[in-house]
Amino acid sequence: MGRQARRPKIITRFGGFFIGPVMSIRTQIREAAAALVRAAVPSLVYVTASRPVALSVEECPQAFVYLSDPQPSGEYLDDDEYTATLTVTVYVMATNSADAELDQIAALINLEQAPLGEWVTTIDAQGDAYGVDEENTGAASINLDYRITWSENDD
Fold first, then answer.
1. Where are the domains of the chain?
2. How many CA atoms lie less than 13 Å away from 151 in the CB half-sphere?
C-alpha cells in the first residue's frame, strides 16, 4: 500500500480574500495584519503586506506591513516556533501637522489582541518611532512595532 499524500490546509478568512495552501505562514501573518489595518483605518489609500519599495505622496496616507528578523524562538527543542518583529509603517504627506495625523492613525491600529491566525501564539507591542525623510520624498512616517511568536507546526 502506498503512502497517502497530506491534504493541504485551505483557509478562507481574513476579510474575505483567499489564503491557499501555497502561501507560507509568514505571508499569511502579513496578509492578516494588513487586512486588520485596512479595516481599522479605512481612510488609508493603500495597505500593502510588504516592505515599502516605492512611495508616492499623492497616494498617502498608506501603510506597509512586514516582518523582520525572523528566527527560531529557541524556547522548545522539538517545536518549529519562530519569533520576529511585525512592523506597520504608515506614511502621510509631510505637513506641519503630519505628526498629529500619524498619531491619530496610530491610535486606531492595535494588533496586540488581533486574530492573526491560529499559528500566532503571542503578539506584544514594542513601541513606535517617527521616521526621518532622508530621501526628501515629502512624506512623514511612523513605525509601529510588535514582537510576535508563531508555530510552523501543522498539528
1. 25-151
2. 11
Q: How many residues does the chain have?
A: 155
- If you write DSSP's letter for every residue of 27-66 in order, what string do you get? HHHHHHHHHHHHHH-TT-SEEESS------GGG-SEEEEE
pLDDT per position in the chain (155 positions), as tens? 444 333 344 444 444 444 444 568 888 899 999 999 999 999 999 999 999 888 888 889 999 999 998 887 666 555 678 889 999 999 999 989 999 999 999 999 999 877 777 788 889 999 999 987 777 888 999 999 999 988 876 55
CATH 3.30.70.1700 fits 25-151, yes or no: yes
Which residues, 6 or more positions from 21, have their beta carbon under 8 angstroms from its beta carbon? 8, 9, 10
Q: What is the pTM of this model?
A: 0.79
Dist. CA 50–CA 65, nearest whole Å: 6
